[in-house]
Amino acid sequence: MNNIKDVAEGLITKFGTKVGLSEDEKSLVVAAEDIIDVLQEIKENTDYTFLEDVTAVDYPECFTAVYHLLSLQDGQILRVKANLDKENPQIESAVSVWNSANVMERETYDLMGIIFTDHPDLKRVLCPDDFEGHPLRKDFKVEAAPRQ
Amino acid sequence: MVLANQEGNFRTQEFILNMGPQHPSTHGVYRAVLTMDGEYVVDAENVVGYLHRGMEKIAESRTYTQFIPYTDRMDYLAAMLNNWGYVLTLEEALNLEIPERAEYIRVIVGELQRIASHLVMVASFGLDMNAYTAWMYAFYDREKILDLFEMICGSRLTTSFMRVGGVPNDIPEGFLPKLEEFLQRMPKRIKEFDDVLTGNEIFLARTKNVAPISGEEALDYGLTGPNLRASGVNFDLRKVKPYSIYDRFEFDVALGENGDNFDRYNVRMEEIRQSLRIIRQAIDQLPEGDIMAKVPKVLKIPAGETYGHIEGAKGILGFYLVSDGGTKPYRMHLRSPSFINLGIFPKMARGTILQDAIASLASIDIVLGEVDR
């Protein structure tokens, strides 16, 4: 079971309409509240067992958390996405499934301001602790630092 | 720390040791906050970000071509491979075929870069255990690779050599004889590294069974590249899902058994040998022809998402590109192997003595330009 459509079909029978294919049929779109159940299911019952990357995108209508899962058998990538509320972007942390999510989620929190609930140590990683705002958000404007 | 109280009884106390960010053994501006019990590390915390330049944000205000020089400055010890990963992602998004000769030139410089990067790891890993000779030896050979890069693109570190659609310059006159000289010399040099490190009793005593990582742990912590293979997991993108023309070369995937510091070193030594094999085959097969595909002057990527990844020198180097159809990326995310590999360092350091923790840090081969981006 490796083709993205087969994976999607398997998940749809289990989770119903909360899981679906994106319009371009290249990613799985999952309801944010089910993300951990779905990731766990994919890790246990498909070839996509390795978490390669976690990040997020700031779209005009929502934030989207993006997970790239890797199959160690054939090197294929499965993209899983979850749309988050624009005002209060929250999603459960995947650290319970993969330890590697720890650093990647911290980075996503730091730069994009996504709150990963139940994360063991959610704090800034690349920006200084007293930094204000989340630089990768579209409303964060880059400007020259004031002259000292 | 041992303290005497008023009755004269001794008690011990843990203390915090700050290592870095300005320290030779941290390989750049990396800082570790270590909780120590005497010589032993009880806990470690990574503190990074001193070199954060906001590359993902910068990408959003640059055209696709303008971003190529920025990729040099991620893993600045393997600029060619960063260039490659980036242009490969764009070519995938554009569905672009590139000329055969360009693919071969990419393989040759890419594998040379992998050797150069691994030589730095071998050198600094040795140096962190006071093996100064190894440092001088390995840097001598890396210098020869940088000379070759200077011939081909005028730059030694920040190469910016690859373009969307191919490579900008063909191999210059005199390059192949020089490369031949390098390929002839390297096997003898590797034997010398083996003499000063691989067979060195002190080196073995310091590295064998230090900070072992099982295959399962390595996967759980998201390790990729030589660090993952050192733990015995047979996964190399060049083999499993050959990009470019890697399906045309014969080479073996170097594997470790225990995932200890020695295996992480040894896997890289073996990968240097395999890269030499690949370069030899690439020279033999090198075809004549164009080096650039026809590409419009102003690049527009069709709206949509692309994820491209290659087997970089430090692990899987990924580029996640979201395009809205314009001339600049809507969002560009860089999956940096060093940043994720570093996540396992606290676990490796716990329970070992400080000197071994420093060797463990060197063994996972991080580059701070890539960690912080």
TrEMBL record, chain B:
InterPro entries: NADH_Q_OxRdtase_suD, NADH_UbQ_OxRdtase_49kDa_CS, NDH1_su_D/H, NiFe-Hase_large
SUPFAM superfamilies on file: HydB/Nqo4-like
Top class in the EC scheme: translocase
NADH-quinone oxidoreductase subunit D domain mapped to chain residues: 128-298, 299-373
Compartment list: Cell membrane
PROSITE patterns reported for this sequence: COMPLEX1_49K (PS00535)
Family the entry assigns: Belongs to the complex I 49 kDa subunit family.
Function per UniProt: NDH-1 shuttles electrons from NADH, via FMN and iron-sulfur (Fe-S) centers, to quinones in the respiratory chain. The immediate electron acceptor for the enzyme in this species is believed to be a menaquinone. Couples the redox reaction to proton translocation (for every two electrons transferred, four hydrogen ions are translocated across the cytoplasmic membrane), and thus conserves the redox energy in a proton gradient.
Protein name per its UniProtKB record: NADH-quinone oxidoreductase subunit D
